[in-house]
Amino acid sequence: MATKKKRTPLSQNDRWVAIAADSAIETRKDDVDSTFVRLRNPSTGAASLYLLGSEDVQLYEVKAFSEDCHSWFIGQTVQRDGRLLYVTPMDPLYLLLPYLVKAVKEGKFQPMNQMVMDEDFPACTRLLNCTRSLASVHHIAEEKEVGGLQFYRYSLEKTLDWLKKKVDRTVKALRNANISVGDGVKSASYVRVKLESEARDEDYLRYAHGLLSAYVSGDLSGALLAHLRLPELVTPEKEEPPSKKRKLSDKPLEAGDDYTKFNSADFTRKPPKKMSAAQKSLAKVDKSGMKTMSAFFSPKAKLEKN
To answer: Cα–Cα distance between 207 and 233 in angstroms, integer?
Structure first.
C-alpha cells in the first residue's frame, strides 16, 4: 500500500516570489504568521486570493504577474512557478460591502458578525479582526448602539460619499505622479501623445472611477458614476462603406447604382488592353469557312421520324 508523502514547509508548492511591504510578512506575537486566504471578490463575486497579516490586523490584495515558460532560481533550487506576486495593502471595507448590501434587504439594524457570514468563504469573518474594519464601517453604514452593543445598516448615500473621497484622493495621486490619462495615453501601449496640462478634470475622474470599479459591484459602479455627475460614454457606431454593407447583408443583392451613367458623354471608356504577339498572329489568320467555337456546343437538331 502506497503512503502519501507529507509536504514540508519548504516544499516548492508553498513557495512564491513576491513583492510586499515588511508589514505583510512580519510576525507580531505568539508566532502568528501572515496567511493566504480565499475570499469573495467584491466586484465579480468569484474567489480571489488575499493575504491577512499577523493576527489579521491588515488585509492585503494579492495580484500575480504571470508569463509562460518562466521559473525562478531560489538558492540551489529551481522554482517552477514563475509568477511574481504583488502584495499591497487594501481597505477591508471593499470586501465587507457586498455582505452589508445583501443584509440591507431585511431593512433592520444588525450586528456585524451576523451580516458577514459566508458558507463558501468562511474566512470572511476574519475581516472583522482588521483594525480598519469596525473603526471605518461608519463610512458605509448607519450605526446604532443598544445595550452597549453596536448595530449597523448599509447606507448607499454614505457609501457614495466615501467612494467619492476615494476618487478625489486617487485623482490627486495621479496628478502628483504625472500619470497621463484620458486622450493623453494610448491604452494599448501607454504612449504619451499630449502634455499633462492638457488633460481635463473629467479625464482624471473617469480614470479614477475605472480604477475603483474593480473593487465594487457593477451596480455600485454605475451609481458612483452618476454621483460624480459623469455621463456614460457611448461609443458611436462606425459607418461602413455601402459596398461592404451589401456584401455582409443577408438580403438579396439589388442594383444600387445608376447604370445609365455609362451612356453619358462624360463617361470615359477605358482604352482596350494591348494584344500579345500570339493574339496578333491569330487575328491575321483567314477564318473564312471555319466554324465558331460555340457551334461545337450548340444543341443537335432532332431527327424526325418518317
So the answer is: 13
